[in-house]
Design a protein that fits this description.
flat, 28% helix, alpha/beta, Rossmann fold
Length: 144
């Protein structure tokens, strides 16, 4: 069974080869053909989340176009792809790479780094939106 995924949606590094979206009932309705009726919307709400996407913006600005693209992608996916959850991971609190920030035993990094690591580990795949600087991604995204 195939599910509609918009062509702009690029997810990389999937842990599962072909994740499938499971419904709570045996349903034949494809999200790509939903007509917006209340029955169709109810089916989408009953969908079981099986794919988590960590979305990371390479820009730190609040009014960033890249962060806006991630918000738009999250909204579109919530409306059209049952079972897909986009977690917008904010990298603005991450410190610059500095191994001296580890504790004495080498076990823990600052809380912002640990939270980032946990959210990335919990994702099934990733969505990156970044400005282009000199044919590359932004510095904050490289730091993350």
């Amino acid at each position: 069974r195939t599910h509609f995924i918009p062509p702009w949606f690029v997810a990389i590094t999937s842990r599962t080869a072909r994740p499938t979206l499971q419904f709570s009932e045996n349903q034949e309705t494809s999200p790509a053909r939903m007509d917006g009726s209340s029955a169709e919307v109810a089916k989408v709400k009953r969908a079981k989340t099986v794919l988590t996407v960590a979305a990371i913006s390479g820009s730190l600005r609040r009014a960033s176009a890249n962060a806006g693209l991630i918000r738009a992608a999250a909204k579109m996916c919530e409306e059209s792809i049952p079972g897909l959850q986009i977690d917008h991971v904010d990298i603005s609190d991450l410190p610059l790479l500095n191994t001296d920030l580890e504790d004495v035993d080498g076990n823990a990094f600052p809380a912002a780094v640990e939270e980032f690591r946990d959210r990335v580990r919990g994702a099934d795949c990733f969505l990156f939106a970044s400005p282009e600087y000199n044919y590359s991604i932004s510095g904050p995204l490289k730091n993350a």
